[in-house]
Amino acid sequence: MYFFTADEHYNHKNIIKYCDRPFSSIEEMNKELINRHNEVVSANDCVIHAGDFGFFSSEREVNEYLRKLNGNHILLRGSHDKWMNSRYHEIWTKTIDGVKIVVCHYSMKTWPSSHYNAWQLYGHSHGRLTSIGKQMDVGVDTNNYYPYSFEDIKGIMEYKPDNPNLVR
To answer: Is 165 inside any structural domain?
Structure first.
């Protein structure tokens, strides 16, 4: 099963205030994000993190967190992921159940295959940006600090309008 998430901001103290997160400390936030992730993600699931995973100074620190999280992880570069080197990408695409999905930290006005109603999943805006067409903010701030499953997203996309540039 596939899961999608963004903007966890592990170890980022100020994100609690900036996003009005209901945690009293980064330790509490980190622990709760890990717990909620592991409630829904199993060991064999694939998790795509659409940027801003956390404030870390090295991949070693990142790997310590990834070991605590269920699943196999694909990390995309976000605006705060200064620890990432050039082998990390900004965009991930895959066709799942016949639907092309494009994942990036940033919302796009158009994206690969948007004119064929491909979905675009993003983060960065912490739920403060209006999506267009088959587009969705998958950040933790939009889902009670849980990742979204592909099935969750599929159900939501069913009720979203077609992409504005859809070719008919």
So the answer is: no
Six token digits for residue 82? 């200064």
What would the DSSP string read from start to end of 4-50? EEB---BT-HHHHHHTT-S-SSHHHHHHHHHHHHHHH--TT-EEEE-
Instruction: Specify whether the CB–CB gap between 37 and 69 falls below 8 A.
Output: yes
Give SS3 for 67.
helix
Rounded to whole angstroms, how far apart are CA atoms 128 and 118? 22
DSSP assignment of 70-84, as one string? -SEEEE---TT-TT-
**CATH number, position 78:** 3.60.21.10
Of the two residues 18 and 79, the one the predictor is more confident about is 18
What pLDDT, in 10s, does the model give residues 51-60?
Answer: 999 999 888 9
- pLDDT at residue 88, rounded to an integer: 85
The pTM is what? 0.95
Residues 6+ apart with CB under 8 A from 69: 34, 37, 38, 41, 47
